[in-house]
Amino acid sequence: MNPDLKYRRVMLKLSGESMGTHDGYPIDPLEAEKVARKICDVHALGAEVAVVIGAGNLWRGTAGLARGMDRTTADHMGMLGTVMNALALMDAIERSGVTVRVQTAIEMRAVAEPYIRRRAIRHLEKGRIVIFGGGTGNPYFSTDTAAVLRAMEMEADLVIKATKVDGVYDKDPHQHMDAVKYDSLTFMEAISGRLEVMDSTALTMCMDNDMPLMVLDLWHEDELRRAILGEEVGTLVHN
């Protein structure tokens, strides 16, 4: 293990939009390669990396609900979308020469392993990157909640929510020039302030289980690497 690492095992939560292009192409292998390079860079430091990815580039359940769709059906469609993204990211990471495994909460053995906690931990211990698809396997739970759940099951040291914003602000920095960034927050402050960090279920799970959460800009140069090394980047949410 690299003695310079502050966090030995991390859970990286990615948005589905990180896999697509700005002109609306939902999954672009070139964009997936960019994400893969950042993950492999951290892996090369000696960190054990697990990943949960959303499906907002492919499907948003809220759009279906607005048109009368059944919530459970809409959520199951979203879970399947996360598996598509997981496979695309797996392919990009493998092309970088790093061994990776995809495990899914909904069994589909032809394309991925079923989620088995002890097997996933063993993959991490052997230096493999593990991508978890299918959310929690249950409707009504977001991929944010899935990331926190898997982080706790993997006994991770940190959950990293990688976004296109360099941390948590008191209001949308894209719309308000006077938005103030937080370097550090407590979970209670994030929940009571209704700050857009993660959904309340995920935040409460982090708080109750003392799982620190870092929000950072995935696309900022070396920010992910610096976070693993313990440098002050993004916003740290903790107890």
Helix percent band: 25-40%
The unreliable regions are none
According to DSSP, the number of beta strands is: 11
Q: Order of strands side by side in the largest beta sheet? A: 4-3-5-2-1-6-10-11-9
Radius of gyration: 17 Å
Following the backbone from N to C, one meets helices and strands in this order, namely EHEHHEEHEHEEEEHHEHE
Mean of pLDDT: 94
CATH secondary-structure class: Alpha Beta
Under CATH, the topology can be stated as Carbamate kinase
Give structural notes.
The protein has 239 residues and is an alpha/beta fold. The protein has one domain: Carbamate kinase (3-Layer(aba) Sandwich), CATH 3.40.1160.10. 37% of the residues lie in helices and 19% in strands. It is built from eight helices and eleven strands. It has a nine-stranded mixed β-sheet, with helices on both faces. A two-stranded antiparallel sheet has the order 7-8. Strand 1 (9-14), helix 1 (29-44) and strand 2 form a beta-alpha-beta unit. Helix 1 packs across helix 3 (71-95) and helix 5 packs parallel to helix 7 (200-208). The longest helix is centred in the middle third of the chain and has 25 residues, at 71-95. The two termini are 27 Å apart.
